[in-house]
Structures are given as structure tokens and as C-alpha cells.
Amino acid sequence: MMDMDMASPPGNHAAAEAGETIITSQVDGAQTGIIKIIQLRRPQAKNALSQQMVRELSAVVEDIHQHAYDDDEQDDDQDALAPVRALVLGSAVAGIFCGGADLKERAGQTPSATRGFLAALRHLLTRLAALPVPAVACVAGPALGGGLELALACHLRVFARNAAAGLPETARLAIVPGAGATHRLPRVVGPAHALDLILTGRRVDADEAFRMGLCNRLVPAAGAAGDAIMSPDMLRREALEAGVALARQITAGGPVAVRAALGVLGGAVDALENAAYESVLGTEDRDEALRAFAEKRAPRFVGR
């Protein structure tokens, strides 16, 4: 296994940069360009998506949009920056990928602030899904709600065996997934599986996720030596390593063809989901769900 330390990914790389909520680094390849690596880092909040995290992620994604395939415009300029050819997104926190939106932060927000946060999150995930380079999510531990939507906005997903995925919004929070899951999830797993996960809010483990096509790779392979005794941090590193390996495999191909394939297969339809979310955001059930979450009790829904 390659050394996948939080601030030291495998290969030739620049020094890691740490923001308040994420760590960014990169792997350089002479033939394959730069693989940018983002690791979520909010250990005290299970990597929940806060306003600050959304801002920091957005800044990196926009930078990749600006610098992907830089060499296409630089011709033979040897001093040009190497192009960004892939993004790998994982966690710097053992045992968790992302627990979803930060409900503690949201509980203190006005409806207007909540809509502003949701607009920023939707924009981030739309831009992530529209990257002209492959984005690989490396999930070790739970990916719930907005955390699963973050992984779904990536083109490919690697799950460690301790991964779990779920969308608790409809069943537990009296809303609908509001950041792309209602159209991205059916495209990945099909309408039947998507309806099951959205309406029941149940979690699926890594094996079931792999069987339904929610993830593209499952690590370590079944029966691998040491599989049963791997710690959460070892599994986190294994997933990141596999994500980097998958990115390298893709970036070894023709960059123009990769970009064209992503353009053909990409695209998003957000309007229907946005309208559905707006229809439930101001309901009594939604307010009750937030109170119940803060009070650590089951919600009592009234259907209004």
C-alpha cells in the first residue's frame, strides 16, 4: 500500500495546503498531468458541509475549471504550468466521508440564509459534475445526505468496505434531497433503487452499494490479506490510493477524448428538484424535523 498520509499523497507532489475545512495537494505525472487531491477535514462535525467548506471546495473546483488542460493553449511553452487532468476527493478523517449538511449551523439560519446556502451548495455540485476532467470520490465511512450528493456529483466512486450511503432527508427531515440526488442517483443506480433509497432513507453498506452500481470500485478486494483487521484510517488510505490509481488509469488515455466523453455523458437537470425542495422548505413538518434533531428525539409529523 502506498503512503496516503493526510498531507502526503503518493507520488511526486507539491506541499499540501490546509484550509479551515479541507486539505488540498496534488500528484504530478510527466505524461498524465496533475491529479488534484482534496480531503475533507472537519473531524469535530463528521465532515458536515458548512458554509465555509462549501466556499473552500468551490474555490478549488473553479480553479480546476480554469487550469484543466492548460497545455492545450500553451503549445510548447516549457514554463507553462502542468495541466490538471483529474480530481480525487476523499476524507482526512478516519471513519467518515461526509455526514451531510451541517444541521447545527442550519438550525440557526433564517429561511433566506438556508436558501442562500442551498444555492451555493447546488452551484458547487453542478460545477463539480461539469468538470472537464474526471472526478473520483473516495468514500470510507458514511456518506449521508449532502455527503452522498457530493459523491454523486463526481464522475466515479471508490468505496472502502466500511463505507455506507444514505439519503435521510425524506424519511427523517421532512424534505427531499435538494442538491442533485433526485436526478443523479437514478442515472447511477436506476429509478427503482433510487426510489428505495430516497423514500425509505435507509443506509446501504459497501457491498450493496457495489451490487447496485452506486460505486465503481470496492476496496480492498474480497478476501484480500488483512482485510478483516484494517482500521478505519487504513481503509481511508486504501480508498484514496485506489482513487488515485483510477485517476492515473484514466489520465493515461487521450485527454481530448476523455474531455469529450465527460461532456457527452455529463449534464444535469436541476429545475424539477429545486421546485420540489422549495415546496417543502417552509412546512410545519420541516420545522418539526429540525426541532426533533436538536432535541434528539423522533419527529412528530402532521402532514403540513
Structure, explained:
The chain has 304 residues and is an alpha/beta fold. The protein has one domain (12-222, 230-295): Alpha-Beta Complex (2-enoyl-CoA Hydratase, Chain A, domain 1). The protein has 13 helices and 10 strands. It has a 7-stranded mixed sheet with strand order 1-2-3-4-5-7-10, sandwiched between helices. β1 and β2 form a beta hairpin. α1 packs parallel to α4 (111-129) and α4 runs parallel beside α5. The protein starts with 11 loop residues before the first strand and ends in a 9-residue tail after the last helix. One of its GO terms (biological process) is fatty acid beta-oxidation. Keywords: Lyase. InterPro entries: ClpP/crotonase-like_dom_sf (IPR029045), Enoyl-CoA_hyd/isom_CS (IPR018376), Enoyl-CoA_hydra/iso (IPR001753), Enoyl-CoA_hydra_C (IPR014748). Pfam families: ECH_1. One of its GO terms (molecular function) is lyase activity.
